[in-house]
Design brief:
rod-shaped; Endonuclease I-creI; 63% helix; 11 helices; 4 strands
């Protein structure tokens, strides 16, 4: 990742770590999600874990009616990582738990314009997490890598949805803006490439048609063609870049008539020894002039 991309990922993680759950149950759930953090050196995560443990310890002390010693014991037990029961928890607690799990065991990569988010967990937990995310309509894939379960999202839409659900803020908006900008650039490049290809084909076709017209005129066969064919040939010379539709509009003809005339010119140029395109073969029931 570039420095800007690393800074954006760090900003997103810092925003999530700064979320202050309003409910006690959510604080307990997020503490459970932070359990076993493999990156304790991250200051944001360390501060979050300390803040949650102090809040939980304070709540436990407030709930005790015994002595200070009893309060201290209660506080110490509250500081221990709680166990989270997904099936019995409400959605807001589940979201807090997932936020903690991502901060403790998740990583986000934005390298080369590709968005990749993954959780590295014990195998059984990774399998269970896939089912839990599927229930939240954010399906993920998982695999085993070096004895660990890896839950992965590669869809930018799903990653953005997850980060938004767990509390992403202004940094997430910047990520969305970058993705929109990248998508617009991609669409624009595709349109430009398609237009360039169409223009290249049109130029090649026009050059081929002009060459055919010159060949017919040089050996006198163009003068032997029906009036419409000669009319289209003159118009093509005057406007080599015009489309069939533009030529038809200028000449007051149907587009199909212009196309048939051009095809007749090219066919006759390719078969100089055949009587292709003589006046009498322009079509049944048509006048030559």
């Amino acid at each position: 990742m570039t420095t800007a991309e690393r800074d954006l990922v760090a900003a997103i993680r810092a925003e999530l770590a700064a979320v202050d759950p309003p409910r006690r149950c959510c604080r307990v759930a997020e503490s459970a999600g932070l359990a076993g953090a493999f990156e304790p050196r991250r200051r944001a995560i360390a501060r979050l874990a300390l803040r949650l443990s102090r809040v939980r310890a304070g709540e436990a002390t407030d709930e005790t009616t015994g002595s200070g010693a009893a309060g201290s014991v209660a506080a110490g037990s509250a500081a221990a990582p709680p166990r989270f029961e997904w099936a019995r928890s409400r959605e807001h607690c589940r979201i807090a738990y997932l936020r903690g799990r991502f901060l403790a065991h998740g990583s986000l990569s934005l390298a080369s314009g590709r968005t990749h988010l993954e959780f590295v967990l014990p195998v059984e937990e990774a399998r269970a997490l896939c089912g839990q995310l599927d229930g939240l309509e954010m399906p993920a894939a998982w695999r085993i890598r070096r004895g660990r379960g890896v839950v992965t999202w590669k869809s930018v839409e799903t990653v953005v949805t997850f980060l938004k659900v767990v509390g992403g803020g202004s940094a997430l908006l910047e990520l969305e803006a970058r993705q929109v900008s990248r998508s617009v650039r991609g669409d624009l490049n595709r349109v430009i490439n398609a237009e360039s290809a169409n223009l290249g084909r049109a130029v090649a076709a026009s050059a081929r048609q002009l060459e055919a017209i010159d060949a017919l005129e040089s050996d006198g066969r163009l003068a032997d063609q029906p009036y419409v064919v000669r009319l289209v040939a003159d118009a093509r010379r005057e406007e080599p870049e015009a489309t069939f539709s533009e030529l038809a509009e200028r000449l007051g003809l149907h587009r199909s008539a212009v196309q048939r005339a051009v095809e007749r010119i090219e066919r006759l140029a390719l078969h100089p020894d055949e009587r292709v395109g003589k006046r009498g073969s322009w079509g049944r029931g048509r006048r030559a002039d």
